[in-house]
Amino acid sequence: KVTLPRMNNFIVYITNNNFHHALKHILPCDFRLNILVGAPRANTSDQTPSTVTERGAVFSCPWHKSGSCTQIEFDSTDDRKNSNGQQMEFKSNQWFGATVRSTGDHILACAPLYQWSTYGFSEREPVGTCFLKKGNNIVEYSPCRSSM
Question: FG-GAP repeat ranges (predicted)?
Answer without folding.
Answer: 81-142
